[in-house]
Amino acid sequence: MNLTKLFDMQRVLDQRIMDKHPELKDQNNLEWKVLALQVELGECANEHRVFKKWSNDQEPRTFKRINCPDCKKKGYYRGNPPKDEQKGIHGLGNHWYFCDTCAGYLVVDKNPLLEEYVDCLHFILSIGLDLPLRRENLMLSNRFNKKRDVTQQFNDVFLSIGDLQVNIRLKKSAATLDQYEDMFMQFIILGEKLGFTWEQIEQAYFEKNKINHTRQEQGY
Fold first, then answer.
1. d(Cα 50, Cα 155) in Å, to the nearest integer?
2. Helix-strand-coil percent breakdown of the chain, rounded to 5?
3. Nearest residue to 8 via CA among 220, 170, 205, 161
4. Is 198 helix (H, G, I), strand (E, B) or coil?
5. I need a labelling partner for 115 at 20 to 30 A (CA). Which of 89, 177, 189, 209 fits?
6. pTM (two decimals)
7. Distances (CA, A) of 188 to 3, 160, 193
8. Which residues pair with 64 in a beta bridge?
C-alpha cells in the first residue's frame, strides 16, 4: 500500500481547508479531528448494520443508485434524456452525452459503506499529519488478532482511537506514535473484514478526496 501518496494528497486537502478557515492555523486541531474520526466510524458501522440485532434488516449498505446531481440541476433524468439538435435524443447506450459526475448515464452508483470507510481514512491521515512522525517510516505491523468478527473489530478500532486520544492528552510522544500505528492497522484490518481490497480503498479515497476539494470550492 502506498501511504506516502495518500498522506501527500491529504496534506494538500488539509492546507486548502486551513486556507479557507484561517482560524484553524497555529492551533492544536487534534481534538476535533479525533472526534470527527469517531463520528465517521460510527457512520461506517451504521452502514454495515451488523450490530442491529433488533432489526430483520442487517444487510450492509454496499449499493445505492442516485440521480446525478449535475444532470438533475440541468433538468435531465432517465425518462427525460438530454437532446442535441444534431445528434437527436440521447440513448443510454450512446456516450455522446458526457457528464463529469455520472459519465453520461444520468445516475451515480455509490457504495455507502465504502464511502464512510474512506471518510474515516481521511481523518486518520489528517491526524497523522498533525503528529511528529515520518510517514515514509510508518510501520503497520500485522500482529493483531484477525479472528475477531466485524462487531469486535469495530469496537477494537474505537478502543484504539480512545487510547490514541489519551496519549495525545498526556503528551507522550513515543507512545502516541506507537498507538497511531496500532490504530491505523486495526482500521486496515477492519477494511479487510468489510470485504474491501486496498485497491478499492485507494480508488475510493481518490474519488472522495476530489469531492472534498470540490466542496471547498463551493463553500460546503
1. 12
2. 60, 5, 35
3. 205
4. helix
5. 177
6. 0.86
7. 12, 12, 9
8. 110
> Cα 211–217–220 angle (5° rounding)?
75
> DSSP letters along 47-83, please?
HH-TT-TT-S-------EEEE-HHHHHTT-BTTB--E
Distance CA 14, CA 4 (A): 15
Rounded Cα gap, residues 154 and 37, in angstroms: 13
- Polymer length in residues for the chain: 220
Dump pLDDT digits (tens) for 64-108: 988 888 888 888 776 676 666 666 655 544 445 567 777 766 788
Distance separating alpha carbons of residues 116 and 47, to the nearest angstrom: 8
For residues 176-195, one letter each, b for 16 or more C-beta atoms within 10 angstroms of the residue's C-beta and e for the rest, the string is bbebbbbbbbbbbbbbebbe
What phi-psi label fits residue 6: left (phi over 0), alpha (psi between -120 and 50 degrees) or beta? alpha
